[in-house]
Amino acid sequence: MKIFITIMMALFSLTTLAQQDAGFSMYFFNPVYVNPGYAGSRETLSGSLVSRSQWTGMSGAPGSQSLSVHSAIPNSNVGLGFQFYNDNTGPMKNTGFNLTYAYHLPVGIKSKLAFGLTGMMNNVRIELDDINVEDENDPAFDGDTYSNWVFDAGTGLYFYLPRFYFGLSVNHLVQSKFGLDNAPDPNFAKFYRQYYLTSGIVFHLNETFDFRPSLLMKYVQSAPLVTEITGSLLVSQKVFVGAGFRTNKRVNMAGSDNMLIGILEFDIARFLRLGYSYDYYLNRNGKYNNGTHEIMLGWDIGRTKTKMTNPRYF
Q1: How many domains are there within the chain?
Q2: What is the dihedral of CA 193, 185, 23, 217, to 10 degrees?
Q3: 3-state SS string over the chain?
């Protein structure tokens, strides 16, 4: 049993170096997920609900969900936020929540620089009863669950204009150790710091079309740099149609770990928007699954006609 748990912890530690936090293709519709400095920047009560199903059609494939709510505090430069998230990969689970504080400092006529800080609680679990084994009576897989709550924190800088933004952030500052009960070495696995660089700009083409390229770069210790470039066409300030490319230069038995991304988002009401994305894997794994599907519902409560006249692109 100790040998098995040691192997599981090793795999958990190694695989999550690349993605301990769930990654979402529509991150730019919910930047507060990767940068706490974004909280309150839309100057309304904003939120999003996202569900991501990765490698659909494969047993035990990863699945992630996120609920984010944030708002500016009236008559102040403060933004507050709350997030709940859940990430499952086979028997490995991570469920948690965080509270976010951001301060938005005007640094120009239309520009602001925000400083964000978030504190989070994560429930890390390994559920052995989710593993399919030949002998159901094997006592080593007798439905045990190894679970622990750990605290961590993140911070970020977010500079923004009506048509441009640039962000730097880091998650898991504390690098909390999982400390799972009954594991042979409770201090073996831990959260590793994840560094994010994000940026985007909007080019006004004509009265109907705007073009919005976006960039995300993520780095985790001992893992390849993840780079994602996305371009979206905004039609009549209501519909986003976009495509992207993600690469992390990792090469495995299936080939290079790159993918293409398709994105569609549209406003279904003044305060409500719906988004969908599809990831297609360019390596041999793409032949054995139905891709990755992501659905998002976002809202801006308190969005006035004035704010509609001067829309928020980010």
Answers
A1: 1
A2: 30
A3: CHHHHHHHHHHHHHHHHHCCCCCCCCHHHCHHHCCHHHCCCCCCEEEEEEEEECCCCCCCCCEEEEEEEEEECCCCCEEEEEEEEEEEECCEEEEEEEEEEEEEEECCCCCEEEEEEEEEEEEEEEEHHHCCCCCCCCHHHCCCEEEEEEEEEEEEEEEEECCEEEEEEEECCCCCECCCCCCCCCCCCECCCEEEEEEEECEECCCCEEEEEEEEEEEECCCCCEEEEEEEEEECCCEEEEEEEEECCCEECCEECCEEEEEEEEEEECCEEEEEEEEEECCHHHHCCCCEEEEEEEEEECCCHHHHHCCCCC
Task: Specify the higher pLDDT residue, 23 or 230.
Answer: 230
Report pLDDT digits (tens) over 151-186: 999 999 999 999 999 999 999 999 888 776 555 555
Task: Compute CA 82 distance to the chain's CA centroid, rounded to the nearest angstrom.
Answer: 14
Contact status, residue 246 vs residue 261, Cβ threshold 8 Å: yes
Q: Is residue 314 part of a domain?
A: no
Neighbours of 84 (CB within 10 A): 14
For residue 80, is it within any domain? yes
pTM, entire model: 0.84
Q: CA 22, 23, 29, 35: dihedral to nearest 10 degrees?
A: 70
Instruction: Give the CATH number for residue 204.
Output: 2.40.160.40
Query: Does residue 27 form part of some domain?
Result: yes
Residue 20 lies in a domain: yes
How many whole angstroms separate alpha carbon 189 and alpha carbon 177?
6
Task: Give dist(CA 124, CA 175) in Å, integer.
Answer: 13
Range of the domain at 54: 2-309
Task: Please determine, for residue 306, whether its predicted confidence score (pLDDT) is greater than 50.
Answer: no
Two tokens, residue 231? 């371009």
